[in-house]
Amino acid sequence: MVQQTSNDTFASLRIPEFRYFVMNSFLITATLLIQEVTLGYELYKITHDPLMLGLVGLAEAIPFIALSLFGGHLADRRDKKSILQWSLLVILLGSVILYLVFQPSIVSGLSQTVRLATIYGVLMLIGTAKGFYSPASSSLKPFLVPRELYANSATWSSSFWQAGAIVGPGLAGFLYSWVGFDNSLIVVIGLLAVCYLLISLIDRKPVPVSNEPVLGLRESLKEGFRFVFKTQIVLYAISLDLFSVLFGGVVAILPVYAEDILRVGAEGLGFLRAAPSVGALLTMAYMTKHPPTHNAWRNMLLAVAGFGVATIVFALSTNFYLSLIMLGLTGAFDSVSVIIRQTILQIFPPDHMRGRVAAVNGIFVSSSNEIGAFESGLLARLLGTVPSVALGGVVTLFVVAYVYAKSKELFTVRLS
């Protein structure tokens, strides 16, 4: 038996199954980003149409948002490990199909329209699998560590995810240059197989039994939403993330800053794109020893407010290094809110509802990312790039002020 204490920075990582879980989280995040970045670059070379790049994320987001609630319903009633394994197999199948679509012997018989339709169809298939994978993964995590390590495990799982978000895009560029697009997809397929192996090393967990009556699908999904909307700390935690990313996110229009405002070109864009994840990873490393959960709600509001301020300064900056620092701070502040939100989502939902609550959270997060990217581009076109980003930061601060006024009683809540 491995002994864990809440003061042990590495307490969660001393549990073998949690190690397998976070290693898989790192690997699948990096792997899917390798596929996304290399595929996007290849599509742009084929079509020379930036709209094709926007459709990559949208093709995955539509089925993910549509199916996440059902995926959460299933995760609450079925073996989570099996759901993860089947979802990974579907994602693996999608990557194999993508590889085949780009083989000359097959491409020669397909028109570009059919080829693109096949690619986006495969992306929708992967998005469908992620709609089941995401809530099952989120709802499995609390069963891998004791309750007193929830904050520690949330910090480590987020850190491994952020590490994957840094390594994936960077490695994608090197792979594309060194071995080409086709061989990059072979690497992706191999890494997905390793992910399947890591999940296989985790024991099956019992499906939680509730004393409440068994609900039909529609009522079950409604119950997930009802829990979120009646549990104030869960609702406000998710909403703060939704609106800060929806209005304050800048990742989608970083190419405009790199090319036209900061004038640092493609190489500078790579640094700008990585800065938020680097800031987040460094902050999460600190939080493994000093978790932000003691005065959780105060820290949550301060973090989101800091995110808004850093966004405003970034919007107005014409200095590359200042812009890098501000983007790093947006990632740092966001990581604090992520740790607190993940801890809240582990503590407050009952075991038999974790999948559905995780699905609602996933819908909020996915909506803020994809719709936020669309909102950034639309406002930049209507108002100009700098005013639109600054406005997003200001709106974030207004949201924080509104939530502060409505949630003062949450300052007494203790998560640790």
Automatic annotation (TrEMBL):
Pfam families: MFS_1. CDD domains: MFS_MefA_like. It is a multi-pass membrane protein. Keywords: Cell membrane, Membrane, Transmembrane, Transmembrane helix, Transport. Residues 1-408 form the Major facilitator superfamily (MFS) profile domain. GO terms for cellular component: plasma membrane. The chain crosses the membrane at residues 20-39, 51-71, 83-102, 114-133, 154-179, 185-202, 233-258, 270-288, 300-322, 382-405. GO terms for molecular function: transmembrane transporter activity. Its main location: membrane. It is found in: Cell membrane. It comes from the Bacteria. Gene3D superfamilies: MFS general substrate transporter like domains. The keyword Iron-sulfur does not apply. Belongs to the major facilitator superfamily. Drug:H(+) antiporter-3 (DHA3) (TC 2.A.1.21) family. This is Multidrug efflux pump Tap. It comes from Spirosoma telluris. The lineage of its organism: Bacteria, Pseudomonadati, Bacteroidota, Cytophagia, Cytophagales.
